[in-house]
Design a protein that fits this description.
Blueprint (H helix, E strand, L loop, with lengths): L8 E8 L5 H10 L6 E6 L7 H4 L6 E5 L8 H16 L6 E5 L6 H6 L6 H5 E11 L3 H5 L10 H7 L3 E5 L6 H14 L5 E3 L72 E8 L5 H15 L3 E9 L5 E8 L2 E9 L7 E8 L3 H9 L5 H6 L1
Parallel strand pairs: 1-4, 1-5, 2-3, 2-4, 5-6, 6-7
Antiparallel strand pairs: 8-12, 9-10, 9-12, 10-11
């Protein structure tokens, strides 16, 4: 009989399109009194880590896999394996590991990581793939005409899910929710679909699923993660400039042959900014709202931590298409205040965005006077 200490550590992959509510769900999991030690591994789409700053303070540890998408950059998935190895080498073991993918990731190659023939894969067990679906914004992404010649990541994330959370269900009418559920069923007829508000869900419904222990899936079949579900198709992602598809010398290495072929939408990318000076928030917010009002179809996601003039707290900026929200958060305490923002979308103009942001920074003279 296998002892508790020898049992593989369960791993849940948390995925969902940009703005679906992954960070909100993550905060819900980390702040619930479940009595388990949970490690979190995040993958950021772009060069700047914002997501770990958006996660509430907790006793859990957060590890970052940055500078490339975890689903299509072999080097980044090698980094994932190395982080898992460090976790496994610790004396104080975790009860569960969460891997949060970027909003533009295909979870399939990430899941395949846990079936590789290496020591790490033998010590962890894929527990399930949980996909959040944005009830307000998902429909245009599922039917995006710009992706006619490319793979659609919003579709793939639904196709491979073991649990689907139809989030923000309070913002959509009943008839539209039923239509969305019908559409989801054409892509994935097996996974339970649960309506959620603010990603609040009974954790027993998404953790401890033991999905891949079932004999119903052949874990010895290398293609089982890449088979289309009913009405669906696999292979959805958009890359940033780091997505080179080149092999690198990391051990234990993940073979490129583990991937299926991706066809990416080259117009989707991320643009990141950092600023030392604080923002005049009363001037910045109207500019951002006007920007999203005009270009909201192309701007999928905005997220950031802002240093606001005259306030000793961090301010969290969250945007999805034309919806924008700014909320105060924890104080800066001993940390040097600064701002970092990430825009993710199609046809982003970095210089125009930088100009729009920079003109609302407080001048050095005004900052010193304050």
């Amino acid at each position: 009989m296998t002892s508790t200490s020898e049992r593989p550590i369960p791993v849940t992959i948390l995925t969902g399109f940009l703005g679906a509510g992954k960070t909100t769900l993550l905060n819900h999991i980390l702040t619930e009194k479940h009595g388990h030690r949970i490690a979190v591994i995040e993958n950021e789409f772009g060069e700047i880590d914002v997501d770990s700053d958006l996660v509430m303070a907790s006793e859990e540890e957060i590890f970052q896999v940055a500078n490339g998408c975890i689903c299509c950059v072999v080097d980044v998935r090698n980094d994932l394996v190395q982080i898992l190895q460090k976790l496994l080498d610790r004396k104080d073991q975790f009860d569960h590991i969460l891997v949060e993918t970027s909003g533009l990731a295909d979870p399939s190659p990430v899941a395949a990581t846990f079936f590789m023939d290496n020591d790490v894969a033998k010590k962890v067990m894929l527990d399930g793939i949980v996909t959040l679906v944005d009830a307000v914004h998902v429909q245009p992404h599922l039917d995006d005409p710009a992706l006619a010649e490319y793979d659609n990541q919003a579709v793939t994330q639904i196709v491979v899910a073991d649990r689907i959370l139809l989030n923000k269900s309070d913002l959509v009418g009943e008839s539209e929710l039923k239509e969305l559920e019908r559409r989801i069923r054409t892509l994935n007829s097996i996974a339970p679909v649960m309506r959620t508000v603010q990603a609040q869900v009974d954790l027993s419904q998404i953790l401890g699923l033991q999905t891949y222990e079932s004999d119903a899936l052949s874990m010895t079949d290398p293609d089982f993660l890449h088979r289309p579900a009913i009405g669906g198709h696999i292979g959805a992602h958009a890359c940033d400039e780091h997505c080179t598809h080149q092999e690198h010398d990391h051990l234990p290495a993940i073979s490129q042959s583990a991937d299926h072929a991706h066809t990416h939408d080259p117009s989707v990318n991320s643009v990141s900014f950092t600023f030392d000076r604080p923002f005049d928030i009363d001037a910045l917010m109207p500019t951002l709202n006007a920007l999203l009002s005009e270009h909201g179809d192309d701007i999928y996601r905005v997220k950031g931590i802002l240093h606001v003039q005259g306030d000793d707290r961090r301010h969290v900026l969250q945007g999805v298409h034309r919806l924008l929200e700014l909320k105060p958060a924890l104080p800066w305490w001993d940390e040097t205040p600064g701002s970092k923002l990430v825009f993710i979308g199609r046809h982003l103009n970095a210089s125009q965005l930088q100009s729009a942001l920079t003109r609302h920074l407080v001048s050095i003279e005004a900052q010193e006077a304050a």
